[in-house]
Specification:
288 residues; alpha+beta; Thiol Ester Dehydrase, Chain A; Acyl-CoA_hotdog; fatty acyl-CoA hydrolase activity
Length: 288
């Protein structure tokens, strides 16, 4: 991420979306990049505790996005930022982000599911996809799902790349862990870097519970998906050097949209973040 002269708000940064085998850039790119842009403007030690995003237009792959950051408020306890992403002269993404200094209080976190097999007992995406074919999957998308997303992702009850493994249940869980140790990022603390990594990975699978209830797999002909809006709360600091359990549940599917909630837990059951997202789900031949 590179700081440039602001044109709209108070500070501005540019970043490039990553390659992926789809017609548009991955939504988690924008969430993570906006998180970094906002964080770079908060220099008094506050940590992001929530961000709320809207995806307004498709974003080109491998192309620059300009993030303009508006400093809305800096208080003793909280700071607020607006981040607006621009590409090709048009707004493509917007979010509001809040940062907190933190204070002494009681503590509670909802409990993690206890009936989920450990990650080491589950196949990697690469192992699952080896020798399989079907639907719209290409060599490029197979490689991307197998190891092109920077994170190892292992599904319970099973992935939905080619078929809906495990049935049309509105629940699933995904163990996630970076393939490699995260490098230092100039200008960011390790905690900010790790929060950005979590924001990046959270978007990959959050719509899958809604797809499950429809019996829809990623490689199904005619499937079109897009992130519409996204909310994320960071309850506790997260260290991205071990497995996290991403427990997910579909909330609603109607009118071509699906909503789901996901919660991230450490291996010892501590809740670190919550995600709620609504996305577009266009399924060929779908009824009401």
């Amino acid at each position: 991420m590179t700081e440039v002269e602001a044109e709209v708000f108070d500070r501005a940064f540019t970043a490039t979306t990553q390659p992926c085998p789809w017609p548009k850039a991955y939504g988690g790119d924008m969430v993570a990049q906006a998180l970094v842009a906002a964080s770079l403007t908060v220099t008094d030690g506050k940590a992001m505790h929530s961000m709320h995003s809207y995806f307004m237009r498709p974003v080109d792959i491998g192309a620059e996005v300009r993030y303009e950051v508006e400093v809305l408020r800096d208080g003793r306890g909280y700071s607020t930022r607006q981040v607006r992403g621009f590409q090709n002269g048009k707004p493509v993404y917007v979010c509001l982000a809040s940062f907190a200094a933190g204070e002494a209080s009681g503590s509670f976190g909802t409990t993690a599911p206890t009936d989920v097999p450990g990650p080491e007992t589950l196949p990697t995406s690469a192992a699952y996809l080896e020798g399989r074919t079907g639907g719209t999957m290409t060599d490029e998308s197979r490689a991307y799902w197998s190891g092109g997303r920077s994170f190892d992702m292992r599904h319970v009850p099973g992935p939905i790349y080619l078929d809906v493994e495990g049935g049309n249940t509105p629940h699933q869980a995904v163990w996630v862990r970076p393939y490699d140790a995260l490098r230092e990022v100039p200008g960011l603390t390790d905690a900010q870097r790790d929060a950005a990594a979590l924001a990046y990975v959270c978007d990959y699978t959050i719509l899958e519970p809604a797809m499950r209830v429809l019996g829809v797999a990623w490689a199904d002909e005619g499937l079109v998906t897009a992130s519409l809006d996204h909310a994320m709360w960071f309850h506790r600091p997260v260290v991205m050097d071990d497995w996290l359990l991403y427990a997910q549940e579909a909330l609603s599917v109607k009118d071509g949209r699906g909503s789901a909630v996901g919660r991230f837990f450490t291996t010892d059951g501590v809740l670190v973040a919550t995600v709620v997202q609504e996305g577009m789900l266009r399924v060929a031949g779908a009824g009401a």
